Amino acid sequence: MDKNQPAEARVLTRAQRHQKKKPKTKKNKGRAWLIALCVVLVLGLGGFIFRKELMVLAFDTFLAGTVKEALDDSYVPIDQPGKGGGEEQQLTVAELTKEPFSVLLLGTDQREDEIARTDSIIYSVVRPVDNKVLLISIPRDSYVKMVGTPTIKGTRSETKINAAYAYGGAQMSVDTVEALLEHDVDYYATINFNGLKDVVNAMGGVELPITETIENKQADHEKFTIEANKPIYDGTEALNYVRYREDSDFKRTERHRIFLKQMLNRMKSVENLTKIPELIGIAGQNFKTNMTSDFMLSLAKTVIMSDTTPEISSHMLQGEGVSRDAWYYELDDQDLEETIESINKWLDSNSTASDLLVDDTDEGGDSHTDQEGQPAGDTGQ
């Protein structure tokens, strides 16, 4: 064949055509596999590296609107200056979730027509930037001065701190704790323990470090038994875990703090993040707070973006039991003073890690209970 003839006039044999195309096919296949590999690496590695950002995006896209509506229903403001969470707040939501702030956690155990008293009182300081939380447990029988009682008929000016909620709801509880600890309460959150059971069940249970069987034995207490070393505990068991009080006030408040931490761990799982609207709906009337929905959503995303569950430090106010007209818990002045100084450091954004060390032991080792295993004058469970 004449090599000088036009290209379109050339006729190639089957072998020549095959030989000419083979290298091109290999090259195309190699390039295709390379592209596919790059896509897999980008999506896979990117999905891993930016998994938190993707979770936040999913949260904003699918959950935020529904959650906001539910949280708006739980918003109950109180008369409170300062940062606040409502219309009069002095800082933006973005600023609020970067600065240390305090939250008074009030757990009530109201049943049917009973007068509501706070079974759990925890003053907490949240440091969003370094992912740390301080929990100060205030024994419910602590003998303190009530704030605001002169305006309420039939109340006492000094009595157990859990009476503040019965006298004047969240407002009086906040005012009384502020006076006791000499620090503002930026926010409060109240939850009725009766709503806790359904929330835990909706999350598929919760892990609890129970190494010995817990059993209510007192004659005037509701009978229950919680088996030890179970991998997961349901809502009823979790409720009984935080209610149990036949050992000591110190142990009981410790269980409250443990439960809070375990719930945080459980909530951060992807499957439970998608249940947030359902969980808030279940909580319903059992949850009240003066934190706005925007603030709580911003705080939730801050937790999602962190690599670990917040590091929790805790302390229970120390004291001893005294008998007056009833059994009371007399707070130790020195421990109270040291706790106030510790709170001051935790609320300071410039504090270092060493400034935030907290003594979480019960110095005296006392149970702070009477011979029957519960505070004298207590009405039982």
TrEMBL record:
Region of interest: Disordered: 1-26, 354-381
Cytoplasm found in the keyword field: no
Signal peptide: none
TM ranges: 30-50
Keywords from the UniProt entry: Membrane, Transmembrane, Transmembrane helix
Annotated ranges, domain Cell envelope-related transcriptional attenuator: 117-269
Pfam family, one: LytR_cpsA_psr
Domain of life: Bacteria
InterPro entries: LytR/CpsA/Psr_CW_biosynth, LytR_CpsA_psr
Compositionally biased tracts (Basic residues): 15-26
Gene3D superfamilies attached to this UniProt entry: LCP protein
Assigned protein family: Belongs to the LytR/CpsA/Psr (LCP) family.
Protein name per the record: Transcriptional regulator LytR
Species this protein is from: Saccharibacillus endophyticus
